[in-house]
Amino acid sequence: MMKTLCILGATGSIGGSTLDVVERHPDRYRVGALTAHKSFDALLELSLKYTPDVAVLSGLTPSDDLVKRWKQSGLKTELIFGPQGLISAVDTSTVVMAAIVGAAGLPPTLHAVSKGKTVLLANKEALVMTGALFMRLVQRSGAIVLPVDSEHNAVFQCFGQTSHQTAAPKVVQRITLTASGGPFLRRSIASLSSVTPDEACAHPNWVMGRKISVDSATMMNKGLELIEAKWLFDLAPTHLKVLIHPQSIVHAMVEFCDGSVLAQLSNPDMRVPIAHALAFPERIATGVKSLDLASVGSLQFEVPDRARFPCLDLAYRVLGDSGTLAAILNAANEVAVEAFLAQQIAYLQIAEVIQATLDAVPAGSAASLEMVLAADAQARAKAAAHVAALGA
Questions:
Q1: Cβ 193 vs Cβ 206: under 8 Å
Q2: Longest dimension (CA), the chain
Q3: Angle, to 10 degrees, between the axis of helix 106-114 and the axis of helix 84-91?
Q4: Helix, strand, or coil here: 174?
């Protein structure tokens, strides 16, 4: 049966990989909606190719020039401006790829869940920020949520389930998420004070956006994934572990009560988890190169160095909290990374901004979206003030 797909964040790396998989299976998928933040030209090019019903520029307001250029293209696709357009995009489709980075992806992702859609979750911040609230909404609406993050998708594959239920079977003893260690795994800690944004974004294995690339370098990305895993798989923090694995071939491991450990392996290419989530419980071709373990040679694993990756410790600090602490962490990280990319603070000051924000903003209940958003706003203000103080 043909599935209609909405891609939130179509011009990003996940969006591009999703469209690559979709293009290989025209008998299975039709693009109903594409969204971008401000990338008009890229969105226009994609819309001309895939002819969606709706296209959204969530970070722009209408302008005569853009509207005119859109009409001149001859597209029948409706162009919508502003963040509310993301809701309209979700409503066009039965399947939603949630690939908007950061807190901006929360409202449309929650809307998709509330409407009982099939949500392919690449936006980890939705679960990080709203955790229990998100999962209660999934249960209430009957939405199907399938993980797209390579590590969480790997865990889900290791469960061996044909049901879309993501909670870990009772026989699962431990889950291990792997991390490449990013571009600074072997660099001296003393030299990290001079790291440039381009160096932090030069990931050795994965092609990703700049924000996620910085998160990978600091290992905050892995910290956020631990929080996501806690909610998605319904596991206590003591059952979650991280290992450095520089080759990025083993994406996760699941240990069972009998001592057996299952791992999911593939070349580091996001088309693998995307295709798995798109076609679940079937499997479809991705165009990904076959894994040649002989050419890889060896697979290495090591415990993360907490002195090198202080952001991972900050994530562990909030892992057991069921209130707004994770939302505060996420907001502070977004502000800090943005400031680093704008060269307003140094690389090592990212963790400093996050720590100061966690210390300054009291955690509260996360029983409602309003409470979470209030904590998010307070944390952003505190983090921005700390950034300003560092630059003074």
A1: no
A2: 65
A3: 30
A4: strand
Span 328-349, mean pLDDT?
96
The two tokens of residue 58 are 């969530």
The CATH classification of domain 3-147, taken from the options 3.40.50.920, 3.40.50.80, 3.30.70.260, 3.40.50.720: 3.40.50.720
pLDDT reported for residue 392:
63
> Which residues, in sequence order, are CB contacts of 217 under 8 Å at separation 6+?
182, 183, 184, 195, 200, 201, 203, 347
Asked if 244 contacts 301 with a C-beta cutoff of 8 angstroms, the reply is yes
pLDDT tops 90 at residue 1: no
What is the pLDDT, as a whole number, of residue 285? Answer: 97
Q: What CA–CA distance (Å, rounded) separates 348 from 139?
A: 40
For β-strands 54-57 and 78-81, DSSP reports them as parallel
Over the stretch 101-122, which tens digit does the pLDDT of each residue have? Answer: 888 899 999 999 999 999 999 9
Q: What is the pLDDT of residues 59-76, one digit of tens each?
A: 999 999 999 999 999 999
For residue 318 the two structure tokens come to 């909030």
What contacts 24+ positions apart, CB below 8 Å, involve 17-22? Answer: 17/269, 17/270, 17/271, 17/274, 18/97, 18/99, 18/274, 18/278, 19/46, 19/50, 20/271, 20/287, 21/271, 21/274, 21/275, 21/278, 21/284, 21/286, 21/287, 22/278
Domain ranges of the chain: 3-147, 321-392
Q: What is the pLDDT of residues 185-209, one digit of tens each?
A: 999 999 999 999 999 998 887 777 8
List helix spans (H) across the chain. Answer: 13-23, 40-50, 64-72, 84-91, 106-114, 124-141, 150-159, 197-200, 210-218, 220-232, 271-279, 293-296, 310-318, 325-341, 349-360, 369-391
Q: Residue 15: what residue type? A: G
Predicted structure pTM score: 0.94
AA letter at 86 = L
CATH 1.10.10.60 fits 321-392, yes or no: no
* Residues 147, 145: Cα–Cα separation, whole Å: 7
Supply the DSSP string of 199-242, one letter for each residue. Answer: HHT--SS----HHHHHHHHHTHHHHHHHHHHHHHTT--GGGEEE
Strands 250-256 and 172-179, bridge-based pairing: antiparallel
Under 8 Å between Cβ of 36 and 60? no
Distance separating the N- and C-terminal Cα atoms of the chain: 59
Compute how many other C-beta atoms are within 10 angstroms of the C-beta atom of residue 186: 8
